[in-house]
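anyone seen this seq b4? input:
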Amino acid sequence: VEDEGRLRNPVIREHFLRKLFLLADFRENTGTQMKDLVDFHSRHKLMLKAYNQVEMRILGRIVANHEKKPYDVVHADYKEHLLSVMIRAPDHGNNINVLQNSMGYFSSDLKKEERDYFIDKLKLYREGKIPLIVPVDIIRSWIIRFNEDYLKNQSYFNPYPDDLLDVESIIKTSDERDYWKE
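predicted toks r here
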């Protein structure tokens, strides 16, 4: 639960919105069949990877359901791990990893100058000189340009409606402080 005062902080607000819309999608679209949970996991795989790569792999194993557990057991187990994944906002390293992996979908189609430009923006993001939205928007433009369906459907690149974008959040450089310490 976040109060209105904390939501004025752009880092906390961004995390809150991502978490809110991801959990709403989980509640509304995981239904009563494994297929629904698999679809959910597929749509949010990069988001989960940005939050916690270890837990993302655990969630993948839960969805794979090699033990053939009943759906309600799998769903409950997935939900428990999903909630723990969303406790803290992603760090720079995980975001950079997701973006580098995403660039891999286009690397053979890009000019060297485009790849170098993107890598330079990742470096500036890592140093806290530019906000995350800059390299994310570069990937978004490539998703459109190359019609990359897998990435187009990833919530990482469109975590919530554009109406909720906040100018301060967009221009604010990233803050590595942990606002979720207990």
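The chain has two domains: 6-85, 92-162. Residues 18 and 46 are 12 Å apart (CA to CA). kinda curious what u guys think
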